[in-house]
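User:
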Amino acid sequence: MITRRLLCASLITAPAILASSPLFAQSYPERPIRLIVPYAAGGGTDAIARLVAQSAGEKLGQTIVVENVATGGGNVATQNASKAAPDGYTILMANQGPMAVNPHMFKSLKIDTLTAFTPITLVAAAPLVMVVPQSSQFQTFKQLMDYAKANPSKLTYGSAGNGSASHLATLLLNYVAKTDTVHVPYRGAGPAITDVLGGQTQFIITTIPSVAGMIQTKQMRALAVTSKERVPTLPDVPTIAESGWPDYESAAWYGFVAPAGTPAEIVDKLQKATVAAINEPAVRKRLAQEGAKPIGNTPAEFGAFMAAEHKRWGEIIKAANLSL
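Assistant: Predicted structure:
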């Protein structure tokens, strides 16, 4: 006799059993795939996610639908994705904030990001750029830093949210330069950039794709980039390292992960489609133009990279005594 308890248990476990079956993996994907992006539409993370998702979806024969969940500094998106069925129909756009930094800064984060997800591939890495509105009094990076040193807590900066690449890059700058600028977090780079333009905050360190057009049209002035070497698309913009802080380096990175337990065959399909998308000449050109370096590695390589980033940022946050 089938009891109610047995029936309920079978209904709960059936999706996981089906997802792990070879037949399911062979027929995957049969419907659109959801890509959760932990920031608002219009920012650098969102732009890269949509660019790669469109091409990868074409190769898989299904649409990859981007869903922006811009709350909690990326923690809400991360937790939602970790709870999704491990069937390949929900993936997460992972970057250093939610995956490698927030576990050290947010006591409310209840998941271990290194075990809650199965790595798919590292999509790209990109330097960041410090920008001010064209009307700003600061013509150079040195001018801004001199002011920041002489006027603690007088400068405010926007970010895409607590733990985002823009937040972390500025925290790191404050730490190495011994300055004190005030953080104003937003739900994504888009609204943060809008307020910099409007003068509500004085500067932002953000992804190059999110402000490249505004730099070209002279709405914003680029003061410095966060990589060790100058960026080909901004050859006249100095690095922070060459401007007096040689140990400074910060970059944004973007990758795809799936909930832990996603079958290896499905992860393999997603990885191959994503790497093929990254290697499309049009996609590589677009990423390069916007300052991002295409990567596309194996799940094991991406997993090792995330573990190293998790350790690195943990040490920085502990040394700087940071918490949220």
